[in-house]
Amino acid sequence: MDSSNDFETLMDTLKNGVDNNWSAILLVLIDPTSISFLDDDYEFELALGLIPFEQRVCILNKKNNADKYKALSNKLLQLFGCGMLLDWKGSADASFTTNKFGKPSVENVSFNMSNGRNLVGMYVVNAGNVDVGIDIASFSDYNTELLNTTDVFAFEEIALFDGVAGNDLRRQLFAHLWSLKEAYIKFLGTGLSYYNALSTLNFAEELKNIYYIKDIDKNEFEKVIGGKSLTFTSYNALNNEVVSVCSENERSVDNKRPSPVVYSINIRCVIDYLDK
């Protein structure tokens, strides 16, 4: 993954202009090698100073550096993703609000954030008032105990694992299902209130055939849930993680929202952009 090239491509795209249907998934790698420069006090303080003041305290209260760097990367990416579309000059221009469940929002741009094990992700749409959700799940999240409970997975979803050959594909299937469910919950923006009904989100039909194929890079489908027509898109990302996003389709003749473009960018590029 050449993050610098993806960043330059993103900047060129924005320079040429994007329409109201444009959307993107922005991914920042936060493995120890990629963010080790934040061990330097000067670099950390510089990056911390770029985000709104009220967000800094939450980051500094994290118990260890890894959690601090992940939280900081999340806020930097959030500021960058919204600011690049709204032409913010810095954190002073940021005007985030949150709903009663804590989901942040901003006028004229719709977005959602997710932290994975080694990735921070943002799903951003160049339009306001669009409900969106994103989740990053790792292959290492695979949990056989959860597969034995119908509180999380539907019977049909559990049966999928019996037809999948090899532990690697089972881990990938688990991460895929989990990220789809989480992306929908984050799309709703209602916090933990939906978790007791996870098994009612049944994606067995949509995924029943794809795990007989190796090297699954992208999967996309439409599904009606709660009377809403939704599009789910999933990607295999770096370090054995699956990124899934969810958005409501527009009410028009051609109502399917275009697939988001995926950009893998370096957190240093984000910092340099915000510090310009």
Structural commentary:
By secondary structure, the protein is of the alpha+beta class. The protein has two domains: 1-129 and 258-276, Ribosomal Protein L22, Chain A, CATH 3.90.470.20; 131-256, Ribosomal Protein L22, Chain A, CATH 3.90.470.20. The chain is built from ten helices and ten strands. It has helices spanning 3-16, 32-35, 41-48, 53-60, 65-86, 144-147, 155-162, 167-188, 204-207, 267-274; strands at 23-29, 97-98, 104-105, 110-115, 119-125, 132-138, 218-225, 228-236, 241-248, 261-265. The strands form three sheets. It has a four-stranded mixed sheet. A four-stranded antiparallel sheet has the order 6-9-8-7. Strands 2-3 form a two-stranded antiparallel sheet. Helix 4 (53-60) packs antiparallel against helix 5 and helix 5 packs across helix 10 (267-274). The longest helix has 22 residues, at 65-86.
Q: Kindly state the mean pLDDT as a whole number?
A: 88
Calculate Rg over CA atoms.
19 Å
The proportion of residues in beta strands is: 15-25%
Contiguous helical run count: 10
> How far apart are the first and last residues' alpha carbons, in Å?
25 Å
Describe the global form: globular
Domain 4'-phosphopantetheinyl transferase: 132-223
Protein name: holo-[acyl-carrier-protein] synthase
GO molecular function: holo-[acyl-carrier-protein] synthase activity; magnesium ion binding
EC number: 2.7.8.7
